[in-house]
Amino acid sequence: MTATQAATMTWHLVCASSRLQTERGVTALVGVLQVALFRTFDDNVYAVGNIDPFTGSAVLSRGLVGTRADRPTVASPLHKQVFDLETGQCLDQPAVSIPRYRVRVTDDGIEIGI
Questions:
Q1: How much is the pLDDT for 1?
Q2: What is the pTM of this model?
């Protein structure tokens, strides 16, 4: 991320921290943007686009959370393509990716930077 991008980023409070169960996804709506949020066992929080790029369906928040080679991942519940939660890259087809959003956890809850 460039300094210009960071300076123009807007933070959006999307939910209370208590709403994120470990290894389960939830969907947040930021304007018209659907974002899938995940908390992993190591207590990291990730935000990616909720739209499965292979089907166009808004389902990634219902995907299977796991790891591949120590990378946090989510597998689409439809065709099981696996996405890296840190980069958004599809590990099965590296030319495909999903949006990845910055996340911060504050006293008020989970915020997403867009």
A1: 59
A2: 0.91
